[in-house]
Amino acid sequence: MVLEKIDQLAREWLEEAGNRIFMALEQVNIEVEAKADRNDLVTNMDRATERYFAEKIATHFPEHRLLGEEGYGEEITSLEGVVWVLDPIDGTVNFVEQKRNFAISLGIYQEGIGELGYIYDVVGGEFYFAKRGEGAFVNDEPIPMLAKENKLENALVIINTAAMHKFPQTLAAIKAARGLRLYGAATLEYMAVATGRADAYISANLSPWDIGAGKIIAEEVGAIVTRVDGSEMVITEKGDSFVASPGVHAELLRDYFR
Ligand code: 2AM
Ligand code: CA
């Protein structure tokens, strides 16, 4: 089965890429460049990691395509065939400023369906994985299904500043919640919801590689993933993202976003 082969190699490559990133953190020569704006950074390690995957995929699976942040893959607008959706470093600002709280993110899509998801928090030592229909895991321990009936008043919510600007009603939602948390890496914010450390994550302006793996893993434990208005989130299109446990998703949608 091709998915088994992909899984075996993806794990090897993620481990190797994680080791290289870990070693790079010890050295002083991380080269940082701003892309679109001063929050949007890229380093030599983002590029080296994506290039490493691009070469491995081309060698082992020449018919597969890569959709990656740093442009070593192809222009992709449809998810025909097998597509590797990769963010070599999600949370690059954290990588540069904190040397932690970043992750490698890889989602495997086959004919548009998310089959395998991996998020590797290299410094935190947490390896999140899900296979569609077979559950989600962190370091091989099953992640429990999310409680269905949580309420906003008991919920921690994660809402990024772009979403606060775009959706002013988020401020009232934060006030109604138990508290606000921000981590600065979309993948780890998705995993905070998947593991119940937060109940909702709302973000504007995410790209396919920010959400490709997170969606697969979060949905596998019963999280609801949509756009902020509740419509379907098509991962090939850039835009806003709203992931939450079922009760909190329904309450936020009903009272604030519809
Ligand atoms: P990145 O580190 O891979 O760029 C917080 O900034 C989160 O939003 C991170 O997951 C970051 O991913 C993502 N993000 C997406 N587009 C961004 C942009 N233009 N500037 C800053 N962060 C962005
Ligand atoms: Ca990135």
UniProtKB/TrEMBL annotation:
Cofactor: Mg(2+)
Annotated positions binding Mg(2+) 1: 69, 87, 89, 210
Listed Gene3D superfamilies: 3.40.190.80, Fructose-1,6-Bisphosphatase, subunit A, domain 1
Alphabetized UniProt keyword annotations: Hydrolase, Magnesium, Metal-binding
Gene Ontology molecular function, alphabetical: inositol monophosphate 1-phosphatase activity; metal ion binding
Residues that, per the record, bind Mg(2+) 2: 90
Nucleotidyltransferase in keyword set: no
Hydrolase found in the keyword field: yes
CDD domains: IMPase_like (cd01637)
Biological process terms in GO annotation: inositol metabolic process; signal transduction
One Pfam family named in its UniProt record: Inositol_P
PANTHER family for the chain: INOSITOL MONOPHOSPHATASE, INOSITOL-1-MONOPHOSPHATASE-RELATED
Protein name as catalogued: Inositol monophosphatase
